[in-house]
Batch of 2 targets.
Target 1
Amino acid sequence: MSQQGYVATPPYSQSQPGIGLSPPHYGHYGDPSHALSPPGVMKSAGPLGAAAPGAMLPPGPPPSGPHQFGQNGAHASGHPPQRFPGPAPVTSSYAPYPPSAPPSYPGPASASPTSRLGSQLGALQISGYGSSQPGTAPPGQGPPGPPLPSTFQSPPRPAQPSALQPGPQLLPPPPTTLNGPGAPALPPAYRQDGLLGPASTQFQPPPPPGQGPGAGYPPQQAGSGPQMAGPQLSYPGGFPGGPAQMAGPPPPQKKLDPDSIPSPIQVIESDRATRGGQVYTTNTRGQVPPLVTTDCMIQDQGNASPRYIRCTTYCFPCTADMAKQSQIPLAAVIKPFATIPSDETPLFLVNHGENGPVRCNRCKAYMCPFMQFIDGGRRFQCGFCSCVSDVPPFYFQHLDHIGRRLDHYEKPELSLGSYEYVATLDYCRKNKPPNPPAFIFMIDVSYSNVKNGLVKLICEELKTVLEKLPKEEQEETSAVRVGFITYNKVLHFFNVKSNLAQPQMMVVTDVGEVFVPLLDGFLVSYQESQSVIHNLLDQIPEMFADSNENETVFAPVIQAGMEALKAADCPGKLFIFHSSLPTAEAPGKLKNRDDKKLVNTDKEKMLFQPQTHVYDALAKDCVAHGCSVTLFLFPSQHADVASLGLVPLLTGGTLYKYSNFQMHLDSQQFLNDLRNDIEKKIGFDAIMRVRTSTGFRATDFFGGIVMNNTTDVEMAAVDCDKAVTVEFKHDDKLSEDSGALIQCAVLYTTLGGQRRLRIHNLGLSCSSQLGDLYKSCETDALVNFFAKSAFKAVLHQPLKVIREILVSQTAHMLACYRKNCASPSAASQLILPDSMKVLPVYMNCLLKNCVLLSRPETPTDERAFQRQLVLTMGVADSQLFFYPQLLPIHTLDVKSSAPPAAVRCSESRLSEEGIFLLADGLSMFLWLGVSSPPELIQGIFNVPSLAHVNTDTTLLPELGSPHSRRLRRAMSAVQHRSPYAMKLTIVKQREPPEAGFRQLLVEDKGPQGGASYVDFLCCVHKEICQLLN
């Protein structure tokens, strides 16, 4: 089956009109000495059909090269790169992200200037080039995609004993200064005729002046949607036409047209067009699900929904050698408590009473669809370790004529990928049932918080949110108990027992050895003690109104909350409202260490490490007692997020940060975050274990977790937005027949105090063909994995090394595809696998993130904050975070309810007459062009012109106009995609606040450094060429 890829043609290749057949394809990428394929390897024929004349652009300025990156010295020599090895001498030949360094293309020392120029990427001419080798996968095998129109079938390709094809041939041109000595002909741009699909009109740029439209290539059969339609524009001028031209310097080259390189928007829209709104059933092993950006209904038929588990590839290589060769990480992003839409079936609960779940005797895997019943139903064979176990008498059932139990469809654990078990006392701490969890609210009442009204705001809001405490679906009231503590340099505990007329305060001044001064009356039911609690919340702002204490403690606050939960023998969550660096004498005291001099040095990693070991030890203690910490931070200056945020990160809590909090601007964002956090679906005191079938195992885990051994992932709490990314490695061969099976089991305590097991099962296919591996990749999950592994590594590795490894691994993955899966072609062509055609743009977005980009202008706290956020993100959140959504609001159709189609994140997509909404999951911008239509401004802001728009507001006026209603609906749809309330910033074109908006235009060169997408693609291509050479 042909494997589609993207081709890019270099500046010095030009199609030769009038010659219909392909040039010779050399087995060794442009080395004529290997005209035949190596023995035993059949190379497939080149793409069929006549070559389309390339659409050449008029001469222009030379291309802007990738100034920011060079080749990765350590890997160019052919050593397999390690992912983030320990600190080691760096043999790189480039400095990371120089703001305005001259372009340098260091290459092998032996390369002459002419051959070096010949190996540089000149053009990217995108077409559907690159067919897989014969035998990679017969048609119809491999993951089923959406049904394709019959016109997509390509004609059969003849087997080729020799690399030459009959018919007119293109001979290698004579040596020139342009192509180096004896370089072979570079092939013309191809198209596959007869593969006509629906033409896409989106993003079809007009042809440059004085030129007809370029030859458009039809969409092609692919794993994740058809290829970009539209003109396939080549980068610079072609090979000089006659001898007269050869003598002089090469003609000036035209800069690469961004429309001719793969677009994330095109990939997202194409997947929506083919799979959106449909039912996706999980009954086939190894099928690739719709993208996270595609709305569809998921029906569990034996494998876990992609809402719970997404993989970097749905087809694992059979051997460790193949995995090493491709460099594609084998990983799963698991979100065990993911929110399920109301139209999908919630998880079934299986209760076997005192017997508990049926498990394999050897590996302890839980009963699931991968177990095979034998011996008339009396025994079952484990799908994970192949051990045969007896079926307990209570669980026995006869088998039908195909060896399936008669009750197969009545039992969720036999027919579904995800379900829950009620756990027995054996699964509980001290073999006794757990108590329902408790929430403790802890408010920093230091001078500045009282004076700026924050304490009053929190107390008022708590009255509202306590009415909405989360509860079990069938229960009328919440079983969660609540408690209250305020603090500055000392701690104040409150007794709010229901029979008291007034709340009572107890002060703990010994913050070195915190103890809980009261048990009875500290944790209470909100329903029973409502009047006392309201009384307390009214009194707290007045109680501390005259306090002038500005120093605070922090670690003792967490210690106190944990001790209170321990004393009550229940798991729970601390909600801490804190605003400054804890400088008072106490454990966990911090000093200001915001040192910009460390940026861009080997000591930069210290900025991401906690300042003291107190917080690491405290986090492990919290996890051991089921105490999760969520921190609402309101810093007006440096607060050492790397230290304060560690406990929320490791205990499965969340860190919310509101820098320079202003009541009138930021209160709504904070209140929305608080409401959402309290109402989240959540499990407490959790242990997760990931089991796999023989041949591979889970080796590395990333997320808000603590691990005291190599297998048990411990989480004080896990909510609907938290994901754990798991990396797998081979420890033996995998077989194509049995595939690769994964079972994720999470033991946890519910909001009602019941111990349960949540099970997610997923079957992946296995193949000994690299082509199948590439066809089944999911770019969004790959980027999630790379981001987490890089952000984990920043604690102990220089950022420069991490950036190099990311660039190098991107190049390795694409070079392996190029070498082993694509048709032979000129080495100067960039060929991308269809499933990874937007991997370079996403990897460049990751490289430009402030965590990996060493810039003194970026606050250290902001870098530490983003690092911690990403470590617990699921695939949908990381996709939006690294490639923000840009919506043209001025194109909204007021008569339609559909949101406007997103456009690429680049300044070139903006227009002075336009209004654009931009969101990355943390912040939202409304950008107003200088010539925005007055009727739109009137409809949205209720003012006559742009000059009258107040940019200080963070809320839009609620007007009845259609424009206002449609914009607010679009904003609410974007907000719905993020677990964080996004504060709206209104920016006018060419005004100073625009800088923050421009930073999110990720396809452009970063205002604070970082390559543009075009430059990065050139850089990656150069590195691929070096690997192939």
Target 2
Amino acid sequence: MEVINITSLNKTANNERKSTGSIILVLSFAILISCLCKIIFIKFLRHKVNLSFNIIVLFLGFLIGIIATQIKGGVNEDDFLRGELQLSKISPHLIYYIFLPLIIFDSSFNTNVNIVKQQFITTCLVAVPGVLISTGIITLFVVYLFPSDYQWSWRTGLLFGSILSTTDPVTIVTLLQDCGASHSLSSLIESESLLNDGLVFMLFSILDRMIVDSSYTIRQIIVDIFRQSIGGPLFGIICGFLCVFVLNRINNELKIEITITFGMTYFIFYIADAALGISAVLSLISMGLYMAKHKYCISTNVQLSMAGAWEIITFVVNILIFTISGLILAHSFVGIQTNLTSRDIGIALVLYLLIHVSRALIVGVLYPVITWSGMPLNRKECVIFAWSGLRGRTATILVLLIYLDSEIDSATRERFLFHISLIVLFTLIINGASSKFLVKMLGLHKGTPESQSVLLQALKHMRSQTSRQINNMKEDINFANVDWKILNNYLPEKLLEELDEERDTNIHQKLCVTPTQTHDDLSLESISIYSDPLQNQHYSDQISIDSIYQFDLDSLPNDQYILQPFIEQINNSDLDFECHEMNMRNEIIKRFLTAMSVDYEKQWYLGMIRRRTLRILIETIEEAKAKLSLKRHWQLLVEHFCMPLWLQCFVKFHKIKYLNIITEKLLFNHLILTIELALAFHSAKSRLENMLTKFPEFANIDNYIINNVLNEAKMLRVRASLVLHDLQHSYKKCWTIEMTKRCAQMLLKYESVAIVQLYETGMLNENEYTHILKLIQKKLFHLEHCYFMGVPKIHLNQEQDSPFDNLSLFVNLTEDEKVYFKELLETRHRWFQPGEILLRQGYMTTEAYLIIRGIVECSEDLLTCYRSGHIIGIDALFDKSSSVSNRTYRAESSIVEAYTIDESILNMFLSNVKMTRLIYNEIALHMLINMYQQPIHLLNYAQIKVLLDEYAIFYQNEIDHDLMTIQLKRNERLFLLVGTVQREEDDYFMDGPQLVTVNQLTSFYCSLDKLCIAYTWTLENEQECLQIVRSFTTSFRLSDSSQVKANTTMIYPSYSGYTTEFTPQYHSLIQVARSAALMSNIELIPMEITDLYHEKT
């Protein structure tokens, strides 16, 4: 008996082993045949048949199933037939737990989160009502209009309707991208489908339980809805945070990083579904989106491999899903008794029409809501959006779960499988095949006229460069035997003809009728003159000296003929000029911002910015693209200059010893982030100018708009320069640490290039080469995370630069006086975040602010900035007759630290002999600015300060002192700040504050019973001051890169022309370090920042 049992067990194990091997045989055969079909499709039918590859795989699986069902008696002997039969009876849980997690995570992880964030309101307004409306319409139809023999209940109808409400964007999005349709439209379709999947799977699980479990109550349904809709996303975000935290601390570990994402996908899905009872799909979507937002947690050398690995995984999963679906369909409908008739095909066709009518109704009803939410969809795009409701992988998986569930009656399962499979088939064939034609018919594939203009100029540049290369090749003796007629098939003209044929455009025709202009014909001198107008003498007074900066917007060039030597006017006869001008400006700004995002990724690869910094830069770029504004990009960066609320709370309790140590570290990290953001943005000027220099055809688009955009970029760059200079001057140790870190990273990059070169020349073997590169990568990773791993501990343990010591007001005091004032003012220390108002015009004030660090601007004059050492509001505090602020002052683009100064402290300052002149100069400066600007309108703020500090004669008559006489010559000015003076000739009395100019020799006597403060200077002093400041402000020059010294390198990369090694991808980046060797045009510190620093010291 025991022998019989052992034999039986061995036979069973042998059969199971054969069954498993047979399944692998069928799956591998299906994958290989599908790949062969894919090759044939790409080579011969790609541009002839608009058919989805998934349909081909489905037909292939169906064909295999039909053949297998027609072979009688061979199942037990043939391994292939045995495996095919096993797959047709596969467990629904295997499909759910093996295939679904990979599809969901890949869709969410490869989504552009920045666009999803911008379209989030629109997506929610479309997806949530859309699923409910679509499910309701289909349910009403199947319950009331289906034949009587169906006898489907409301629960069954809701389950059927929820499955048919899912959408699969893969096919339609790919077609839209190939056709050149709007990127925002394809992103909306993709994000709407992603949210649809989460909602439908939640409804599916609840409705499926309602059918199987008759005791499922309303209360339990409500609890499950809240638990799954809230618990699922919350759990996914937590898991995404943990995954990002771990990946951020792994550097270039290809196997580990890919395996973590793969393993976490299954782990999170199972824990959410089986252990926590929440929506596994919503959890995985949330985790994928969170990781997509922090996609730079993946190492630079792993991102490309990561994208490729997941692309292969989803490709295989798609093949397996549709192959198994075809096998199950074949076994369900061929050779066995079913409850289906030909009538059911007609019902399926009616259902196909119904889902499109319901989707068109949803888009039509929700169109006002879509436009209200800020999504710029026109009517043509709405047609595509309504037609894009394809059903695919998600619906197939759900219906397989129903069909393979034995707890549901067989007739219902068969009808579910039949109808939904036909709907999937119809949408993939009809909608998928006709979408490309519909896009072309509506004219959405051509893009806007403005984008076509830019494309035309880009193709002109490619043609001119190719022509130059051909001429060089013809002159080369090595190409003497080339058949140039055959070579014509590989010229840009031939490529454009093929492009026009594929996309049904006429670009080649437009390019042929446009006069050509080669790069040699363009005046590079014109570009260089235009590229840096601020360094000319006419613009030299744009920025002032010392701690006041003033720049004049009127001085920027707005002459639309500056680029006239290479301007080619486009034909606007058929366009509204204003609309065309606005659209063209938006197009140029969008492309400019795209160039900036690529440059930011280059900086990250070169080790100049951290992953967190890059994420912020890319997010702000994407939002600026949505607003089509360069200024918006800078404004968003300034928002990140603000200290977070939790850090502001720590700063308020900085006197606590242990909290002070933590606060210093957190503040240090925030300042480093600010420096990195400002430095990265600072290269904005070079990008657009390099576009003009390297692609001069770009200027043919619209000269006037190019000028305006370039000027806007220059002014924003000046703002960034001011912030950088203030950070360098105010936080010297932070600046030193950041510059040291960057230099170390640059050196390591150069070392990696040297190692590659030594390996290529045979000086290093493979083991030595690999080992040294790993050591270099380890050091680079350590530098990037040094703020968390303790590299700057030595600096953090040292006392930070005291802000009090940076103030010139207290430089000449004795040590005892410095200690006294320092202790007094420390209790009055305040922080102001960027955009926060210090004083408001017209409001009562009893305090002034002595600026310690940061930049303050006057709202009534945005061109003037105040920084360390100036006392804002001192004029209102000094003038006892009025305590109202004359102007509004706010923190501009950086954090501002200031001491509050009240009347008692001001009197203490004035009573100190070493500070008296400086304080009165500050009061006089603000008085002249606010009260007497018109008589000296030729001088700006900085020039007035130079006039008071260096040229004006200062008079001070204390009470009960000797009589003070002021002698004025012809063309001299007298500014009486406070007190009363008497003119000698006619006993005329003049009370301060007042400004007068005399045209003859005049004497004034000061009153003996009042304090008298006065200044005198000549008109010639004003002219000299004006000229001196003009020559002095060249220190803040925006010099051309060609004039910068060879050994002066910048912190961010410029376009040196050697960019072939850099391949920006959606998951960006590079596999080699060779491009670091070509950084000849990279500057370590912006030139104007260096100049100002040396002039200060």
